[in-house]
Every structure is written in structure tokens, then in C-alpha cells.
């Protein structure tokens, strides 16, 4: 296999011809060849080869070639030859970022538009990258009407072949569970187009994946899906406090903190509107009646989870968001860490619920002093083990995971949640902006890995 970085130009010549500089001819071992098969995505075309005297590595496409394989733009790109005996040369990689949003808008991907523009801006340096919605795919012609980014930072549209890799950033669980999205994913799978991440995680599924894995199950709090009242009562008596949360929830919505103090009764904390609510019940039955009145008698799709006494700052619990990525070598890296301090009286540490964001160094140094580096490194190692375990048991491609991890007052690490499409709010912290850039770079490098465009030179 050979992989070469070169400069693509367009010619007005209508013939099916590619003009290739002498340096590039030599790199691609094309001396004496009259024709090559040129490919972008699954579009291919046979084109005549004509050498040109031009210093550097340059590929100039006649207009018939450009339109025939839907090359979206000129610029620097890789050219791949999988087999030295083959006459086929592939341009790319062609990477598609799948999302959704309002039609006919300057923000076609709603609140994700800024992040998608950042991906496209950085990706242009090493690949053809575009964003698209499910509506933009023409399965009959196997093309996509994609959103590309111009130099001024505005979107423009180009029709291109189906991508070599799809990075899934569809925004909602509801959309992902629809029949049309299920069919979309299956169509990409049938064409052997790598698609990551497959979909949002369900909390109960992740707990179930890990409960019998002895390498990591010690880091997962005791958790049960759809618990009967007897289970909740037993766990409260053993742990004194629990978290009761929707299996498919996010951003801390719908979470209850249940507390049992033997001589004082049962207490429930939850978020309502912009405030925190604390209710006291004299007995277990009255507490359960309140929960059942709010969510139905069966309390389905809820998970009960052992509460953990976390380390604190100013009497406010601290947990950590670990942003994990696969790198260009298909290994898990810890790319960004934010420490989240809960607001007073809040059920969770979510920033929208009054929490505040610190760097892990700020949080841990106040708790562990000179040992903070050692504690942080141990937590990073555990985060990588957890990511590897989830990937091992999960049946689809994973490229990123967001973990909510806690450290208890005995220094034990706990995993509360794993998210397949983690939010990016931690990267808004001034001290974490470089990690936000590294996150984008990891996404792009992993796309290159999945596309089989392995970087060997970047001249």
C-alpha cells in the first residue's frame, strides 16, 4: 500500500485526463502507464495519464474527471493505492459528519453548528470532510448533498459519493430509535462503510454489559433496572442514599436523590424548573406513592443506583467528566477532564443545575494535596480500562465516550454514567480549550484510521 499527500487542481480541459507532476508520477510508480482508475468514495473513472513538468506533488483533473467522480474541491489531499499491482488510485478520505437540524437555516445543525464547523475547518487540512442530514442522502444514486465549509467559514453545498466513514452526531434519542434511522445505519453497514458512534447508550445496558466483567465491575455502583419497591427499600437500608434516574436520560433531567435516615425518615431531592426541591416523608410507602404519582405505578425505564459519598469542596460533592477518544492507532486516550462541583442543594453536578466547572488539578489538589497527581493518574488508567471493557462488550464501532466518574472518600473510583455522544461543555473552560482542540484532532485521526487512509508522509 502506498499513501501520498498531494495537491489537487482542476483543469477546464473536457477530456477524461489527469495531469500528474513528475515527482508525483515517481511517488506513485506510474512511469510508463497510459491510464489509471481514479476513485472517490465508490465513484470510479478510467482516465488517461499525462505527465507535466511541475515541481512538487500535483494532480490536475480534467473537468470530465472532476464531475465524473464528484470531486468537491481543489487543495491538499491523500491519494491511496491499496496494492502496488493495482491500477486504482483513491482520493480522500471522504468523511461525513451526520447530524440534523432545521431546514433553510444559516444554522442547519442548530446548537451543534459551531462544533461541526470546527470539525470541518480542521478536517479540511487532511481530508474531504462534509456534514449532512439523513434528508441529504440519495440512496438510489449513492450520493450525498453535503455541507462543505469555505475559507470565510460559510457553508456551501456539493454532491459527493457516499463517504468512506460516517461520524454520527445525530442529536436525539428519539430520532435514533426511528425506523428510518435504523434503516440508514443498516444501509451503511451493508456497504461496509464504518459508522461511529452507532447510537446513544442506555444506562441499564451499560451496567448490564459490565456487571459480569471482573476487570471493571468493581468500579460500577450497585444498579438495577425497573426496581420493585422492595428492592428500593432494601438498597436504602443498606446504602442510606440512592440515585433514581431515567435509563435514557441526559443532562441530569428526571434524577432523584433518595435518602434514608433511620430516626428522621425518608428524603427526596430533585430539580424542578430552575430550583431544587427537598421533600420529607415519614415512611417508605408515602415516598413511593409520590414517585408513582409522578411516573406511573410501574416506574418503568428507571434505574436505581447505589449512592456514593464523594470527595467534596466547601461541602459540595465533586465528580469528573472524562472525555475519551480513540486515536489514529485505534487506542483509547483521555483527552479532556473537567471537575464538576455541585450547586448547593442540587441533585447532580450538571452545570445547568447550578454546578461549576474546575480543572481536575484544582479539584484534586484541594482534596489530596501533594498526592493529587498520583490520584489523577490512577483515575485515568481506570477510565481507559472502562472504555476498553465497554468497547469489548459493545457490538458496534465506538470512537468516543464521556464518563461521569467519582472518587469517594476512601479514594475508590466509581463510574456513574457512560455517554456515547458526550456533550462538550467542559471545553468551554479557559484551561480546557487546548483539550477541546485535541478532541477534534482525535476524531479526525480516528476517521483516517477507519477509512484505511493511514498517514505515512505529509510532504
UniProtKB/TrEMBL annotation:
Alphabetically ordered keywords of this record: ATP-binding, Nucleotide-binding
InterPro entries recorded: ATP-grasp (IPR011761), YheC/D (IPR026838)
Residues in ATP-grasp domain copies: 372-448
Superkingdom, natural source: Bacteria
Pfam families: ATPgrasp_YheCD (PF14398)
MF (Gene Ontology): ATP binding; metal ion binding
Protein name per UniProt: YheC/YheD family protein
Organism, scientific name: Paenibacillus mangrovi
